[in-house]
Amino acid sequence: MKKTIIFCDFDGTITESDNIVAIMKHFNPPGWEPLVEQVVNRTMSIREGVGRMFDLLPSSAKAEVAQYVFDTAKIRAGFPDLLDYCDRADIEFLVTSGGIDFFLLPLLEPFPIEEDRIYCNASDFTGERIRIVWPHPCDDECHTDCGMCKTTVIRRYPKENYFRILIGDSVTDFEGAKLADLVFARSHLITKSEELGLPYVPFETFHDVVRHLNTIQQGEG
Length: 221
Description:
This protein is an alpha/beta fold. It has a single domain (3-220), classed as HAD superfamily/HAD-like (Rossmann fold), CATH 3.40.50.1000. Helix content is 42%, strand content 17%. The chain is built from 10 helices and 7 strands. The protein has helices at 19-27, 32-40, 46-54, 62-72, 79-89, 101-108, 150-155, 174-179, 188-196, 206-220; strands at residues 3-8, 92-100, 118-124, 131-133, 162-168, 182-185, 201-202. α9 links the parallel β6 and β7 (201-202).
């Protein structure tokens, strides 16, 4: 019997809004808006776009940026319930995020997720500007220059052995959605799933996700 595993996005999924966009809007460094637009319309890779966005900010702003996200980011309703459900149902739960460690890890710290279950980008503040580091790059099968490559992580859990669920909302989830057995989508991921003809389950809170998973489990029972 296949083991169930969830690959869950962070920005705009676990949190209610996209923290990278929120950071750029709040600190408003010149030149950030075209970069966001190019990443969203896929004329620039995620890795290049995110790297260039943070290069607009000085390393000295690290604490201020992290505190801003910590103070303003809201965890989507039902997230603790989803983690509890996964624990009870023996579902492996991974955070797969294009977000950055210095603001993502503090937000997830209150929740019972081991750090080796969290995949995200890293950061370097030793230079004048914030430099993003990419510890989880694309493998030979991915050529979209993701930065934090979700499909590379997903492929480590082969479909022969795992029922693979993706929960996401945006451009960093598009490629992963093509590999998943079940997709929970909101925002841009709904639009893209419909364009690609991919089946998906819409959600607004994690309570919706738990309800659907319960339905599946009862159907199997």
